[in-house]
Specification:
It contains 18 helices and 14 strands. It is α/β, with parallel strands linked by helices and about 425 residues long. The protein has 2 domains: about 10-190 and about 355-405, Rossmann fold; about 195-350, Rossmann fold (3-Layer(aba) Sandwich). Strand 6 (about 215-220), helix 10 (about 225-235) and strand 7 (about 240-245) form a beta-alpha-beta unit. It is globular. Bound molecules: S-adenosyl-L-homocysteine.
């Protein structure tokens, strides 16, 4: 049964707010041609007719374009956030008013209400859960919702940390349905994680602080796809970039990409800005705070608000106070000042607008096509974690190229045969 009550602030049906959300969503949609093509086909073929889908994503204009696409395919949706600080109230309003989609969210909600909203989506008994961080999948497997778990045919996971979580559920033998790891599609992480997080992290830091990056020393913890993007863009703005790593292969790659590689204990002595993007926790911790320079800025662009150990920073600080939106000042026992951005949550989502629509076009095209795939193929899929089918990945890249007006060459039959042959030189 779909929930009809929508426990959101009273202005959620405000026509002005809905109109603003609609216009901003239309703006994002202009930059999402791949999704537009899929929506047109979905409207004709209705591959998701009557399928109940529970969605936990950042509630942004780009997500609204995805939700319109799924609805065009016939899906029945219920939506909660995947992070309390990324929700845009005007987007909630247009989804509720213009699309009649139940949305359980508001900007800046506290954690109890966040988890109530996750529960409200699960109460609609979704057949497919679409996650960013695996909160819906984990809640369904918590052992407290047997009926909900029985109703679910599968899940789709958007982000790196969520994929790590479902893989660990699978390895421990608890995962009860197939989950498609959208994050691991090439057309997702090579673009959204690298260029999207790369840009939105810098954007968030600049919007929050308005500091000059040229000449600043900028430390990036973690050289995965997101970290590579942030380091590349910080260098592009003229910063001197330091990378910290725990993986020898990635550390070597950062070195050969021309970055200084240091342990965190040394990086904190030099950095004007430190950004964590590892997916781990305690990356900047009690061991490091007093080594920071006076005035150092700390930000996080990884999954949870635990990469910078905010609890330890609070415990250590003599005083703390907000200095402007998204900046909190901590005075340490030594008298040094440290500035934490966006409460240690994803800075590019909280202080800027997450990944741009042109990239989410590809990530969410994977979501839409994988939803269709799961709805059709689930009877043949055992519980486990699945890659996005290679044909979908390539199709998304090709559709994006076509939309951009970029043409590429094709192998001749002769060249194909050459590449397929193991005999040398013939
Ligand atoms: N759920 C976690 C972190 C994941 S954030 C948390 O909130 O702490 C990273 C994910 O956000 C990426 O995988 C990306 O696909 C998604 N994302 C980035 N920009 C987005 C946007 N504009 N709209 C919706 N999701 C976005």
């Amino acid at each position: 049964m779909m929930a009809t009550a929508t426990p959101v602030p009273s202005d959620i049906r405000d026509p002005g707010l809905a109109e603003q959300g609609k216009r901003r969503t239309d703006w994002a949609a202009r930059q999402m041609p791949v999704l537009r093509g899929i929506a047109e086909r979905f409207a004709k073929e209705r591959p998701l007719q009557g399928v109940r889908i529970g969605v936990s994503l950042h509630i942004t204009t780009e997500t609204a374009v995805l939700l319109r696409t799924l609805r065009a395919g016939g899906a029945q949706l219920a939506v909660c956030p995947s992070n309390p600080l990324s929700t845009r109230d005007d987007v909630c309003a247009t989804l509720v008013v213009d699309e009649q989609i139940p949305v359980f969210a508001w900007y800046g909600e506290d954690l109890p209400s966040y988890y109530r909203h996750v529960a409200a989506v699960l109460a609609t008994r979704p057949q497919i859960v679409m996650d960013d961080g695996a909160d819906l999948i984990a809640a369904l497997h918590s052992g407290e919702d047997a009926a909900g778990l029985a109703a679910a045919i599968g899940g789709i996971e958007e982000t790196t940390t969520g994929v790590i979580r479902v893989r660990s559920m699978d390895a421990s033998g608890v995962l009860r349905f197939p989950v498609i790891a959208v994050n691991d599609a090439l057309t997702k992480h090579l673009y959204d994680n690298r260029y999207g997080t790369g840009q939105n992290t810098i954007d968030g830091i600049l919007r929050a602080t308005n500091v000059l990056l040229a000449g600043a020393t900028f430390a990036v913890a973690g050289y995965g796809w997101c970290g590579r993007g942030i380091a590349m863009r910080a260098r592009g703005m003229g910063a001197q970039v330091i990378v910290t790593e725990i993986d020898p292969v990635k550390a070597l790659e950062a070195h050969m990409d021309g970055f200084r590689v240091l342990p965190m204990a040394e990086a904190v002595r030099e950095a004007d800005i430190v950004v964590t993007v590892t997916g781990g926790h305690g990356v900047v911790s009690a061991d490091h705070f007093e080594s920071l320079k006076d005035g150092a800025i700390l930000a996080n662009s990884g999954h949870f608000d635990v990469e910078v150990d905010v609890a330890a920073l609070r415990a250590l600080a003599v005083t703390r106070r907000p200095v402007r939106e998204h900046i909190e000042e901590y005075v340490l026992p030594s008298g040094k000042h440290v500035y934490l951005l966006a409460e240690g949550r994803l800075v590019g989502q909280a202080a800027a607008e997450a990944s741009p629509a042109a990239l989410m076009d590809m990530s969410f095209a994977n979501q839409a096509l994988c939803t269709e795939y799961l709805a059709r193929e689930h009877p043949g899929l055992e519980p486990g974690v699945y890659d996005v089918p290679a044909a979908i990945d390539r199709q998304v890249a090709q559709l994006k190229l076509t939309a951009l007006g970029i043409r590429i060459d094709q192998l001749s039959p002769d060249q194909e045969q050459y590449l397929a042959s193991w005999q040398s030189g013939t």
